[in-house]
Amino acid sequence: MQTERGRNVSGIDECLLEALRLPGARGAAVVDWVSGLALGTAGDAPGGDHEAAACETAELARMVAEYRSFSPLHAAGTPSAVTVPAEQHAGQTPAVEDIIATNSDSYHVLRFVTGALDGTLFLHVWLDRDEGNLALARIRLAEIAGRLVL
Amino acid sequence: MLHRLAAERATGAFTRAGGTLFLVDGQIVHAESPAATGLEVLLTRGSVLSQARWDAALSRWGREGSVAHNLVARGHVPLGLLELCQRTALYDAAFFVLAPSGRLGRFRREVRDWLGAGVGVAPAAVESETARRLALLDRIWPDARIDVLPPASAVGAGRPPTVTDRQLRILQLADGTRTATDIARELGRPAFHTLVELRRLAAGGLVVPAGSGRMEEHVAEAVREGEQSAAVPPADGFAKPDVALLRRLMDALEAL
């Protein structure tokens, strides 16, 4: 879709289809981890049910987003010698960029989306392990997440 | 009634005590509720879109129902962001419209929404999502009074160790006067998300519904009086918000 100014704009569907173009991609979704609702889905879902998968991935995303163990030690831009207490991360959501889960035949990458809805959204891509390239997926998903809200 | 409207592929506005669902060809394209945060707040509070731009878009394109298209086409809001906020706001409002309240809905044919967001959702999908959300809230903490009565912080000085940053912001606003909807709007967050966090805080004993106790008898009486005076619906089809709120409180008390 093009705007009057001639820029390409990416909606939810376009972004999910782009995620499906990753080598080995089986399925993709954008999920709200507070409610567990998939706001958009594409391709196949683990277990065959996008809604059930969204509820489960949302639980994982919520825990990682909220537990202090996963917060960075230093706020971005501060000298590494200075440790910032977790309280000061309020407003700089989310602290975690992505989560990866690996099993014998798949990779799952969950990429948090910043700049929308207070950091409560993430992109989930499910990749075949043999065909999938994890480094590429992380980089591409970061780009897609950025394009979704900019 | 909603199932019949979906099967008939009806177009119009379906109104219950909790708000209104806008249908086009039997699909829900937009939803509004006095208890929900609203798309306007989600877009403007996230500092993507200024309030002035929103107001201008609404006044210029609201009547022809093309606000969404024009905001995106003119580059004021990224398409993805609009879609994400629009879908979030739709489910947020639909939750309050479809939550059980014992009252029937009214349908006004051919009434259109001002947003013009386009893609709709099947009523059955929104109903099952609403049921899932109700079960989710109940699992966290079964007392629904916190949805309706203003929450009051039950925490002493200093920060409790198990609270997230998001919950802390809610606790700071829980003064026994603001309702969950007030808090959600002030934070620019969907109402349902705030309900989830309040149930979690209540489960941890960190908030309590303000004024509970003698409130139950007064509420039951107020609902009866409110229903009598609301027996003739106002001309615009919207139920009075205070009666709706009291109705939800009654249901919450009965469910306890």
TrEMBL record, chain B:
Q: What is this protein called?
A: Transcriptional regulator
Q: What is the lineage of its organism?
A: Bacteria, Bacillati, Actinomycetota, Actinomycetes, Kitasatosporales
